[in-house]
Amino acid sequence: MIPRYSRPEMTAIWSPETKFRIWFEIEAHATTALAELGVVPKEAAAIVWEKGSKAVFDVARIDEIEREVKHDVIAFLTHLAEIVGPEARFVHQGMTSSDVLDTCFNVQLVRATDLLLADMDGLLAAIRRRAFEHKMTPTIGRSHGIHAEPVTFGLKLAQAYAEFDRCRERLVNARREIATCAISGAVGTFANIDPRVEEYIAEKLGLAVEPVSTQVIPRDRHAMYFATLGVVASSIERLATEVRHLQRSEVYEAEEFFSEGQKGSSAMPHKRNPVLTENLTGLARMVRAYAMPAMENVALWHERDISHSSVERMIGPDATVTLDFALARLTGVVDKLLVYPENMQKNLDRLGGLVHSQRVLLALTQKGVSREDAYRLVQRNAMPVWRGEGDFLSLLKADPEVNKHLSDAELEEKFDLGYHLKHVDTIFRRVFGEA
Amino acid sequence: MIPRYSRPEMTAIWSPETKFRIWFEIEAHATTALAELGVVPKEAAAIVWEKGSKAVFDVARIDEIEREVKHDVIAFLTHLAEIVGPEARFVHQGMTSSDVLDTCFNVQLVRATDLLLADMDGLLAAIRRRAFEHKMTPTIGRSHGIHAEPVTFGLKLAQAYAEFDRCRERLVNARREIATCAISGAVGTFANIDPRVEEYIAEKLGLAVEPVSTQVIPRDRHAMYFATLGVVASSIERLATEVRHLQRSEVYEAEEFFSEGQKGSSAMPHKRNPVLTENLTGLARMVRAYAMPAMENVALWHERDISHSSVERMIGPDATVTLDFALARLTGVVDKLLVYPENMQKNLDRLGGLVHSQRVLLALTQKGVSREDAYRLVQRNAMPVWRGEGDFLSLLKADPEVNKHLSDAELEEKFDLGYHLKHVDTIFRRVFGEA
Amino acid sequence: MIPRYSRPEMTAIWSPETKFRIWFEIEAHATTALAELGVVPKEAAAIVWEKGSKAVFDVARIDEIEREVKHDVIAFLTHLAEIVGPEARFVHQGMTSSDVLDTCFNVQLVRATDLLLADMDGLLAAIRRRAFEHKMTPTIGRSHGIHAEPVTFGLKLAQAYAEFDRCRERLVNARREIATCAISGAVGTFANIDPRVEEYIAEKLGLAVEPVSTQVIPRDRHAMYFATLGVVASSIERLATEVRHLQRSEVYEAEEFFSEGQKGSSAMPHKRNPVLTENLTGLARMVRAYAMPAMENVALWHERDISHSSVERMIGPDATVTLDFALARLTGVVDKLLVYPENMQKNLDRLGGLVHSQRVLLALTQKGVSREDAYRLVQRNAMPVWRGEGDFLSLLKADPEVNKHLSDAELEEKFDLGYHLKHVDTIFRRVFGEA
Amino acid sequence: MIPRYSRPEMTAIWSPETKFRIWFEIEAHATTALAELGVVPKEAAAIVWEKGSKAVFDVARIDEIEREVKHDVIAFLTHLAEIVGPEARFVHQGMTSSDVLDTCFNVQLVRATDLLLADMDGLLAAIRRRAFEHKMTPTIGRSHGIHAEPVTFGLKLAQAYAEFDRCRERLVNARREIATCAISGAVGTFANIDPRVEEYIAEKLGLAVEPVSTQVIPRDRHAMYFATLGVVASSIERLATEVRHLQRSEVYEAEEFFSEGQKGSSAMPHKRNPVLTENLTGLARMVRAYAMPAMENVALWHERDISHSSVERMIGPDATVTLDFALARLTGVVDKLLVYPENMQKNLDRLGGLVHSQRVLLALTQKGVSREDAYRLVQRNAMPVWRGEGDFLSLLKADPEVNKHLSDAELEEKFDLGYHLKHVDTIFRRVFGEA
Predict the structure, then answer these.
(1) What is the CATH topology of the domain spanning C96-257+267-349?
(2) B296 CB near a chain D CB, below 8 Å?
(3) B185 Cβ under 8 Å from any chain C Cβ
(4) Domain D95-350+418-435's class?
(5) Distance CA B158, CA B145 (A)
(6) Does the keyword field hold Acyltransferase (chains A, B, C, D) (predicted)?
(7) Residue-wise pLDDT tens digits, A304-337
(8) Residue D210 gets which letter from DSSP?
(9) Cβ neighbours of A86 in B, within 8 Å
C-alpha cells in the first residue's frame, strides 16, 4: 500500500485512529453487556461510553506506552484508563487482547469489503453502459491472438460483465467469511466472560458469532478472504490485458483516454501508451501474491500463535487498498475508453475473409463431404492467403474440388458478417437480463 | 500426482479412458440435440450412440493420430469416425474443440469434487466422534506454544470440526463455480450451433449453462476452484500441525497410530514419528501452490489463448488427487489417534498453577485494585515460578499486597479446573447442534 | 510431470530403478570406506559390490516390503539383504536413512541440472544462430505495445541470448548449491560413522561434503535451487510471449513453424496458432509455482521433520522434467521460427514516421528550443497522425513554429532508419563477444 | 513496509528525496559525459552540477507537475529546469525515462543489499559467539519432534551459521545480479546517446554496464534478486521456528529475552511468549510472497511494458525493509537468547535412555545378529518405555535374547553421552574454520 495507489476512504479504514475507535467500541459494548449481566456497575459502563466517545485517542501516547509494555492492547487500555479514570478497571473484564484485535480486524475487513462492493457496482455499471453502446459493433474474435471469427465489442464487454458479476458474488461470500465476532477469552472457553457478551457485541457490530474460537478467530476465514481478492485481481488483469492488446499500434481498436497535457514518454512525443492497464496488470500481481501468506497463516500452533499478525498488518491494508484502487482505476478506463469501430472493421477485413473458413467447412460436410476431406480442402485454400498469395473467396471458387460441391453464390453467402451476430441478443439476455 | 499419494477412484477420473468417454458423451448428446433441431439426421445420432457406446476408445491409436495432426480433439474425432463410420460427419457440427474440452474438464472437476465432498463427510464424522469421546478430557490450551489456560481435547476437535465444516461449504461453492457447460462454437457466438444444444447437454450432464463463453469457459471460475482447494489444504495443515505438536516427546499427549511391524527409523529402533501428519503438511504446501498458476490462467488473451491448458493438465489431477489422498489420510489419523489423557493432566499440572493467573488478576480488580496494579502483583509472583523458584499459589499467599485483598481460601478457589469447562456444552451446541 | 510434457532422459533420472541404483552405490561406497577404516570386513564390502552390481532391484518386491515396514530405506535394505546375503548386515552401519535419501536426491538433482545445462547450451546456440542471421533485419521496437523506435530482429534475439546466458550461470550456481553429500548419521554428529566415510562417498559421487547436516541436508539449498528454476522458467515465458505477440494476425512478423498435416483448430481450417509458445507460457507458470513449497520446506522442525519429503517427491521430477521439456521446446521454436522481414518493414512504416519523433525533439532542443516547448511542438504534430489526420513529416514541415528552427532537409534527415542501427555491432560484441 | 517493521536507514533509501537525488546524479553525470563528448557545452554541465547539488528537490512541487503531465520523470525534469535554468535543456539528451528509473532502482537495490549484508554480518557474529559459548552444551537432537540422539546446542547454532553464511553468499550474488546501469535510450539502441555515456555513468555509480537493454534493464535480474530474498527469509523462519520450539512450556530449553516491564498477555500475567520469533515467521511469509510477482514481472511485452513498475514500487521497499528489520530482530533474539542447559539435560534424560537405541542395535549387529533381528530386539524393548512400562537399560538387560550377545557392562557403555560429541570439533572446524 503506497499513496500512489491508494484512495482516502479505504486508507482511512486502516488508520490507527479508526482502529482505536473500533477497539473502544468493542470494549465499551462489552462493558455495557457485562453491566447488564450484573458483572460490573452500570454507572461504570455509562462513564466509559461518555468519556470515551468524546475522547480523541492519542496515537503517539499509545505508541509511547507500547514501547514500554510491548503489547498494543495493554497500551491502549492504559491510555483509555487515563481518559476514563478509575472506572476503567471494569473494562476488558475476562477478555483477552485477541477478542479486541480479531473482532476489530474483521470489522475493518467488512468495511473494506463494503467499499470494494461499491467499487464493483461502479465497475459493473460502466461495463454495462459500454456493452450496450457497442452491443452490435462488429469486431474480430481472436483465439491465440489469431483472427478466429467475428464477435461484437459488446460481447467482449458482456463477458467482462459476467465475470465481474461473479466476482461480486465472491466478494459477498468473502465478506460473510470474515464477518464474525469472538469475545471468548484467553483460550476461547468463556471461562471469565459470559457468551452473552459475545452475542451482544456481535449484534451491535453487525457480525455473526464465531461458533468456536481459540483466543483467535480461525484463519481459514481470512485465507478464503484474501484468496478471493486474488481471484478478483486476476479478473482485473484479464480486462486490463484486453485493453492493452486492443491499443497495440497494429490493432488500435480501442485506447485508454489520453488527457490534454499528458505525456506518454519523456523521449518520444508521439507516444500514447496504455499505462493505466499495464499498471493494473502489476497491481493484480500484488493482490494475488498476498493470498499465499494468508494461506500459510492458517496453521497456527495449538490455540494460537501470533505469526499471522505481522502478515495481516501488511496484507490487510495492502490487499484491500490496492484492490480498491485497481477497481476504481479500471472503472475509469472502461468509462472513458476510446473505441474505434472503423479500425475494428478494418481489422475484420484484414485477412481477406479467412475468418469464414468454418462456414465453408460446414457447408461442405452438409453436402456430404467427410469432415476430414472438407478440412483439407478448406485448409489448402486458406494457407496461401497467409502467405499473401491471394484472396480466400477467389481461391475457393477456383478450387475444382470445392466448387464441385458449392456454387459461387453458396460460397459468397458464407462470407456474411450478420450470420455471426444473430445470437447476441440471447447472450445479452443471459448476462444482463435484457437485450 | 504420484502413485504414492493417489487413490484409485480419483485417479480414474483423470485417465484418458474417462476423458474420451466424456468427450464421446458430449459429442453424442450434441448430435442428438442437433437431430432434434433437424440439423442432422436422427439416424445419424442413433448410430453415433450405438457404435460409440459399445466402443472402447483406443488411447494409443488416438495418440498416434495426434502426433500427426497435433490436435487432440481432431485426433479423437478421427478415431471416432473410424468407429462410427460415415455418420461421423454429423458429429461436432458447429462446435469447437473447447466446447468439448472445457465441458469435459468441468465434468471431471465436478466428479472430483463429489469425491472430495465424500472425503470431507468421512473426516467430519471421524472428528465428531473423537470430539464427543473427549468432550470433557481436560488439557492445557496453549497460545504461542506457552501454557495459557485449560481447555478440553474435545474443544480442540470441535474447532477442527467447525473449520472443516466451513471447508465443506467452500467446496460446495467451488463445485458450483465450475459446474458449467459451454457449447457455443468458435468464439462463443453460437454462429454455427443453436444455443438450445448447449442447454440440452447442460441438462444431460447436470451442469448449468455458461452465460457467456468465448470459445472457452472463463478461467476465473477455475481460479476460484483451485484457490478453494488451497484453503482446504491449509486447514488440513492446521490439524496435522496440531497432531505433530501433541506427539512431540516432551508433550506426548497424543500420537499417530503405530502399527505392528512399523519401523520409525532405519537407525533408531525406539522411534515413533508423526510421519503421516508431517506428510500432510508437505502435501498441503503442494495443493496451496497450485492456486497460483490457476490465478495466472485467468488473463487469457482476447477470446482465449491456450496457456491455461498445460497448467490444467497438471493441476487438474495433481490438486484433486493430492487433496483426496490428504483428506483420507487425515481421516485415518483422526480415527485411530492414540490419545493420552493422563499425559494431558500431567502437562496441565506442570507449571504449578501458573495457568490460573488471569483469575487471580480478575479477582484483584474485583476487589478494587486497578488493572495495572493487579497485573503487576500477579506477574511478580508468576515470574519466579518460571525460574523454578517456588509454587505459584504459595507465592501469592505469601505476598502481603496480594493477601491484603484475597484470603487464602479465595486464592485457592481460583485454582479450580472445572471453572474453565462450564461453557463446553454451549460451544458444542454451536458447533455440532447438540452437546 | 505428465508424459505429454516429458522427455525420456530426464524422466529416467526419477525412475525407481535409478533411485535404487544410486541408493545401492551410496551404501556400497560406504561399506568400502568402512572396510578401509577397519570397521567392517573387506570381504563384506567386496561381496556387496559384486552381488549388488549384478542385481536388478525388484521395485515391486521393495514396495511390498515397504507396505509392511512403512519405511522406504528399510524396505530397500531388506531387499538388498535378500540379494547380498549375510554380509548385508555390514551395510548401512552407523548411517541413517536420510544419509542415503538426501545424498541420492542431490545426485539426481545434479544429473538433472546437467541435462538442463545441455538444454540451455542448445537453446543458446539456436538463439545465437538466428540473432546473427537477423542482425540487421530492421523491425519496430515497441514499448507498451506501442511503436517506439526502430531496432533489429537480431537485437531482440541478442537480448534473449544475454538473458539465457545469465540463466545458464544461475543454473551453474544452483547446481553447486545442491551438489553436496551428507553421511553423518542420525542427527549429524557422526556418532556412529567416521566423517571420512562421508568424504570418501562425496569424492566418489563428485559432490562436496555438507559442512554440517542434522540428519538432513539443509533445505535452504533446495529452496535456492527451485527458485532458480522458477526464474529460468520466467525467462522462457518472456521469449515465448515475444513470439506470441509477433505471430498475432495484425503483427505477423514471425510465426511458429507449422508442419504439413498440422491442424490449428477443429472448427476453423484457416488457423495457425502459436500453440507451442502458449504452451510454454503455461509450463512456466508451473515451474514458477514449485518455488513456493520449496521455500516453505526450509523451516523443518529441530534437526528435521519429513514434511519436505512429499513436496520433493513431486517437485523434484515435476520441476526438472517440465523445465527440460520447455527448454527443448523453446529451442525448437527458435530454431524453426518463420521470420517475415517484409512484414516487419510494413509495420515499421505503418505509423507514417511517428517513430522518429524523438529525433525531431532533440533537433529542436539543439537549435535552442527549450525541452518543454520542443516536446509540445512535436506532440501537437504527432497526435493528428494517430487520428489518421495526416502524415507526420508533412505536418511538421507545415508547422511554422517548427520550420522556424528546422528546414525541410533537416527534418527529412531525421527520418533515416540507418541512424538507429549504428550501434548494433557494439551491442553484439558485448553479448556475443563478436559482431 | 509499515513503520512497525521498518528501520530508518533502509527506509531512507526508498524516500522520494533519495530517489530524486539519485535521478539528479544520473542526469548530471550524463550531462558531464555528453559535454566531454562535445555534445553539450561544458559550462552547461558545470551549471547543472552546481545548481542541482545545492538544491533541495521539492517533492510536493514535483508531485504537482506529475498530476498534470502524468509522467514522473518529466515532472522531475521540469522541476530541475526551474532550478537550473536554461541550461536544463542539455539535460536528458538522447535518454529515455527508463535510463534514469532503472539505473536508480538498481542503485537503491545495491544500497539496500549493502545494508542487508551488514545485517547479515551482525547476525553471523551473534550466532558464532553463542555457538562457541554452547559448543559443548549437550541437548537432545530431535527428528520429527521426537527425541533422536544427543547433539549440542552449539551444533544447532553451527548449522544456523552455515545456513546464513550461504545466505550471505547468495546476497552477494543477488547484488551482482542487479548492480547494472543502462543508459541506452528509447529502445536500447543508443540511437541518440553514445554508449560511452553509459560506461561513464556506470563507473561513477559503481555499476556494471548492462550488455543489452531494451529501454529497460531486463527483469530476470530482479526476479533472481527477490527470489533470493525469499530464500533468506525462509532461513530466518527456520531459526525462528527453532527458538519457538525451544521456548514451548514443555521443552523450555531457551527463551527470548523478556524485559522488565514487558507484558506477555493482557489477560494472563504469567505469560512469556516467543513473540519476536513468531513475528519473524510471519515476516518471512511476506518476503517470500514478493518473489512471485517479481517472477511474473519478467515477461514484459516486446521491448518493455510498465506492468513491473507498480510491483516494484511496492516490493522494492517492502521486501528490503522487511528483511532488514527481520535480520536485525533475529540478531537481537540470538544475542540475548536465554539458554537453559539444565533444562536441556532434563529433557535429555526424559526418555530413560531410549535415545541410545541405535548404539545397542549396532552393537548387536557387530556381535553377528542380523540387522533385522537386532532391530526387532531393540524395538521390542523400546516400545514399553514409551508406554511408561519401565526403563530402557533395565529392559534390555532383562531380555535373554539381548544379553545372550551383550553383557550388562557392554550395554551400559552404550549409554554414554560423550560418545556422541566426539566429532563436534570436526564440524566446528568445517563451519567456522576453527574449533
Answers:
(1) Fumarase C; Chain A, domain 2 (1.20.200)
(2) yes
(3) yes
(4) mainly alpha
(5) 20
(6) no
(7) 999 999 999 999 999 999 999 999 999 999 999 9
(8) P
(9) 370
